[in-house]
Amino acid sequence: MVISKTEPPKVNIKVKGKCIEQIEQFKYLGQLITTDARSDDEIKSRITITKSAFIKLSHILTSKRVGLLTRFRVMKCFVWSPFLYASEAWTLNKNTEKRIEAMEMWIYRRMQRISWKERVTNKKVLESVGLQRPEVLLTIQRRKMKYYGHLRRHNSIQKRILEGKIDGRRGRGRRRQTWLGNIQETSQMKMCEVCETALERRRWRTVTAHLGVGMAPS
After folding, report:
1. Nearest to 203 by CA among 149, 139, 144, 155
2. Number of H helices, E strands in the chain
3. Distance in angstroms (rounded) separating the CA atoms of residues 81 and 79
4. Which of 4, 9, 82, 169 is the most exposed place for a label (fewest CB within 10 A)?
């Protein structure tokens, strides 16, 4: 595989006289790796898996005979778990965030058997399941923050890769969203403050715990 922002060039690598196949994507430790190094395709794949898991358990998750609290516990265990696996490694943008929230609302509407034709707002749907705002995106953001704090406080190859710089000029065009950019946006702090605060475990835990507090529900 060749990682490139544009169309990856064709390469010809041979081992013992045999040409190695060049691919555009593959699964590694449950994550979908693509030539553009983005998380979009991986998130789309996870959404498909999550909806499939929900449908398999729909006889429980949509049953009015089962209490809402019990259905939520089943959903978090068997539906959210496969979606959130390794989500701390994702780089999110506005489009992927909207996809994640749309998937979450899709599940809540089916749990409560609320049809789109009824024109019930997302706010009313969230109130019907006892929530003020969608939870999944906030969960991912907190996982990313915790993971960054762990990386920042330990000398490791992951830290070197994350904080390392590459010589040369940046390519033309709009700057792509980065994983560290996600951390900065989520924390609502300058990058120098993020780096300094993450070194102190208690302070970073406080910042992470207060994510979403005071935010208006979407």
Report:
1. 149
2. 11, 4
3. 6
4. 169
